[in-house]
Amino acid sequence: MNINLNNQLIKNILLTGGRAPVTLELARFFAVAGYQVFVADSIKHHLCTNSRYVLKNFLVPQPRYNPTDYIRALLEIVKQEHIHLLIPTCEEIFYISHGLAELNKYCQVFAEPIHILNKLHNKWEFICQVKKIELVTPQTWLVKSKEDIFDILQSSNSFHKLILKPVYSRFASNIHILSPENYQLSVKAIEKIKISENKSWVLQEFIPGKHYSSYSIVHQGKITAHAVYPTVFTAGKGSCIYFEAVNHPQILQWVKRFVESLEFTGQIAFDFIETNDILYPLECNPRAISAIHIFQVSDKLETAFLNTTSEIIQPQIHQKAMISMAMLIYGLPDAIRYHQLRQWLMIFFSTEDVIFRLSDIMPFFSIFIVLWQSLLMSFKTGLSLIQVSTQDIEWDGENI
């Protein structure tokens, strides 16, 4: 995809996904740089609602349940506010991608067509894409029935630990570890899952090692910003809540090769396991992730989106940030459980929160309204707080 960005013409920016801390971070970056920032989301109260850096917020229909009206609402905002550039941040990007033909008539959208995004979001398609460019992957099988799983297990000469996960999922949710030491438990786990031709899963070899996440901003295969951080503390099984920038040239070279092969444009993130100096890609998120928090205003990340930087923007090594509320709710219990309390205390009292800013204090107080809203929704739906946070924007391959 070719986005023709001319910095002299870009003034009004529309961000979607105001619930996400990364969206608030981007709003601050763009506003400080002199752009007018607008935000749209399908929940009433979110982190950007009261930010002084957001000129106007819009409540829009839920994309997952009303995709047509969602695109229609975005079109009205784009026309009304003379939006020049629309940047999706969360999974609503897939619904926006479905509406590219309409949206691109009135503004530029920082997103690829849906058939490209699906190759990355779909965990099986992503592994196939990596294999096409002859990069190493974990051994992976596509399974469309429980019988497929048992056939693979029985045909394997040595049943090592395996990971079973849906081809469409997020936050490392709905993951099952199949272990030879607990074979009967593994069988019970398989019996409980819902799997079919239309809801396929992947079975993947478990590779021990160090877990990294990368994030890049890319224009036609050229990286304009890049960051890497290791996994330390997470909310549940997967979503990181503490971020510290590291220098990892091998990951940068891997990402360069991958995005060049697709001539990709947009935001793209990868999860890796590194063992014995070999990088194994696990999955891809073609959207924003929390690595945005380890950039600073002085890094001028907005120039990476506008493709006006002459070099790859990277955060300072050891620059760090945390989601303090999540560190208390999820990180502290895990630190106690796994004897990491000293490390947790050192991080918690030396790291800046991603939301709290004296120059923009209201979003920090909004956390409590957002949390209460999420608790009520969790109680009504029976979903976890993490699931509630994305249930109205999730996309699982519909209407490809």
Structure description:
It is a single chain. The chain is α/β, with parallel strands linked by helices and 400 residues long. The chain folds into three domains: 1-111 and 362-400, NAD(P)-binding Rossmann-like Domain (Rossmann fold), CATH 3.40.50; 139-205, Dna Ligase, domain 1 (2-Layer Sandwich); 210-360, ATP-grasp fold, B domain (D-amino Acid Aminotransferase, Chain A, domain 1, 2-Layer Sandwich). Helices cover 35% and strands 21% of the residues. The chain is built from 14 helices and 17 strands. The chain has helices spanning 21-32, 67-81, 92-98, 100-103, 114-121, 123-132, 146-155, 183-192, 249-262, 302-306, 324-337, 341-348, 362-381, 385-388; strands at residues 12-16, 36-41, 56-59, 85-87, 108-109, 140-143, 162-166, 176-178, 201-205, 210-219, 222-230, 234-235, 239-240, 242-244, 266-275, 278-285, 320-322. The strands form five sheets. It has a five-stranded parallel sheet, sandwiched between helices. Strand 1, helix 1 (21-32) and strand 2 (36-41) form a beta-alpha-beta unit. Helix 5 packs across helix 6 (123-132) and helix 11 (324-337) packs antiparallel against helix 12.
